[in-house]
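FAQ: What does the model actually see?

It sees only this:
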Amino acid sequence: MKGTISSFSLAIRSIFKDLVNLILALFPTVIALAIYLWAVVSVFKNSDWFTAFMAQYIESPEAAGWLGKFLTALLILFIFLLMSWTFVIVVGIIAAPFNSMLSSRIEKQLTHQTVTDSTSKTMKEIFHGLGRTFFTEIKKLIAILVMAVLAFLLNLIPLFYPVGVFLVATLLAVQFVDYSWSRHDYSLGACVRDTFRNAFPYALSGGFFLILVTVPLINALVPALATAYYTILWLKRHEMIKSVGDSSSSALKIEG
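And it is asked to produce this:
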């Protein structure tokens, strides 16, 4: 269970005490919010279209106007409901390339490698690596779907429900540990061995993040926080961290 608890506080410091890391953590959330806000504004701006549409079937202009407004309000409410159901998923998808860079930066900082403090340079590196990142995410998604189906089937049998929960928690952990695996070119066999070797720490911490996903506002930061946490946990369990002090201290080498 080495590093399971202590990695959490270090993960928070790694994000909030480094400006570039903080931007990488918050940017996907801002993009996701902008998408939902654009949808709401688009519906509101087209409220007259809904009124005109209802006027084709209702003779009274006043009644058509009220129904058009009602339909607009209903669609906006639906968008907010959809947001509550899908926000974390949307943030997670958008965050993939940002999380990959965040994981890389945190590893370099904690192993005293050179990192850049230039936001623009970091963004360029993210866009240059988009192809590889999304290819990795597709492979990860396939593996996650297989395990998710297995966990779902186990949850249908009361006797195996704890096993299903264990798998889901481990599944959440693995999708963030994968950033470290990919960066170090782990083979499938090596990934499986690492998962079995650290099954309980991954499942225990994965269960904690599953709880955080249910908390409004905090759930928007779960992808970035989990990325930082599992990067640090992986480094600690492989004894690669040279110093467990402040991850943004002056000891770190920063490239301008």
